[in-house]
Specification:
Blueprint: E1 5-12, E2 15-22, E3 33-36, H1 47-53, E4 59-62, H2 79-92, E5 98-103, H3 105-116, E6 121-127, H4 138-147, E7 152-153, E8 156-160, E9 167-170
Parallel strand pairs: 3-4, 3-5, 5-6
Antiparallel strand pairs: 1-2, 2-4, 7-8, 8-9
Amino acid sequence: MRATLTSEFRLVDGLRTHTRRSADPTAPGTPPVVLVHGLAVSHRYLTPLAETLGTSHPVYVPDLPGFGLSARPGHSYDLRQHVAHLLAWLDAYRMPPVCLVGHSFGAEVAAALAVARPGAVRALVLAGPTSDPTARSRRGLVGRWLVAGGQPAGGALAGTDPGPRRPRRAPLAGGGHRRALSTQRGGGGSGQDHRAHPRAGRGT
């Protein structure tokens, strides 16, 4: 069974923003799920997941500024600006705490949003997140995984130091793709996916 999805547009921080959302009613009090897409793509590849989750939860898949059917701002957005726009989008929809699911660069946006406003996020899912540029080697990634493998706490990632066995705060991956999700200059959405500049970064 798959949920019915519908498209709608809202003005968010002066930018016409497209959202694909579930249209079927769900049980009262069910937490909404927000899916955040990756670099140079749109809501479209997350549609099958939204249709599946929409049978039990309200599901929303916004197009980030400059991608999918959302309008393009007049300048390139960095990570901080994408987070600010997504926070404004949550406010525009008067969302209760959500289950935030980010994929690839969308995972970086989702993680940064959870740090910026922990009360807005009931649960956080990071699928195939972009890596910290200071730990991109296999050894660096394994080391970071061993050190920062704990549960979210206090707006940062809490891990366990394998040496002295005491709690420590591990920094979020705030580097790679800082300005990767570059948005094209120009007007609003035209029904086509707006692609990032080819030098914007790697991955999705």
